[in-house]
Amino acid sequence: MIRDGTDTIALFTDHRLLVTDHLLIGETAPDDVKARAAVKDPPAPANSALQKPVATLSLSHSMQVTLLKSKIHRAAVTGASLHYEGSLTVPADIAKMVGLLPYEKILVGNLQNGERFETYVIYGPAELGLIELNGATAHLGAIGDRLTIMSFARLTLEEAKTHHPLVALLDAQNRVVRCAEAKTKVGRTERDLAMAGE
C-alpha cells in the first residue's frame, strides 16, 4: 500500500505486517526490511498444544456429585398465598420423614402444568396435610395440582455408591401411602403406579 511521499508503506507476507515509515514514492525498501519480509514463520513444534490429544476427565475420590436426597411425590396443593414472603409449606411430619429441614432449598415440579421452580421449605402443622404455594410460586400452581418436591445432596463418589434417596408417596389427601428408600434405578411408569393403586 503506497500513498503520498510521507505515508507509510506496508508489506504483507505470510500473515505478517511489516511497516516502514517515510519512504518516498518509488523508493525501494531497505535490504533489512526485505530480508525480514522473506522470513516465514517456523513450523509449530510437534508437541504443540494444538496437536496434543484431549485429556480425559479423572474421577478422583475428592470429586463430589449432586444426587437426589429425598422426594415427596404427588403432593396435592391445598392452598396458595401470593402475598407471603415465599417458600412452600410442607407438613412438618412429612418433611421430617424424608429429612427435609426448615429453609432447605428444594426443586418442585408441577405434574399438571409442567412448571418447575426452586424455593425453600417451611414447616406447616403436622398431620393436617397442608401443601401451600407461597409468594411468587402461587402463580405456578392451583389447588388440587399434584407436585413432586425434591431435595438434593452433594456426595463423594464413594458415598454415592451406596446412597439411596428417601421417597414418600402421598394420596390425594396428602396422607403417606409409602415412605422408603428408593432401591431401583429405573422409574416406574404411570401404568405401574395405577396397577399398584397409587
Structure commentary:
The protein is mostly beta strands and 198 residues long. It folds into two domains: 1-40, no CATH class; 64-195, Barwin-like endoglucanases, CATH 2.40.40.20. It is 13% helix and 35% strand. It has helices at 31-38, 92-97, 157-162, 190-195; strands at residues 9-13, 16-20, 64-76, 79-81, 88-91, 105-110, 116-124, 132-134, 146-156, 166-170, 176-181. The strands form two sheets. Strands 4-8-5-7-6-9-3-10-11 form a nine-stranded mixed β-sheet. The longest helix has 8 residues, at 31-38.
Termini distance? 81 Å
> What helical percentage do the residues reach?
10-25%
CATH architecture classification of the largest domain: Beta Barrel
Q: Which stretches of 5+ consecutive residues score pLDDT under 50?
A: 5-26
Structural class: mainly beta
Strand order of the largest sheet: 4-8-5-7-6-9-3-10-11
Average pLDDT confidence is 79
Largest sheet: 9 strands, mixed
Count the beta strands: 11
Count up the helices.
4
Q: What's the SSE pattern?
A: EEHEEEHEEEEHEEH
CATH fold-type name of the largest domain: Barwin-like endoglucanases
Radius of gyration: 33 Å
Report strand %: 35-45%
CATH hierarchy, class of the largest domain: Mainly Beta
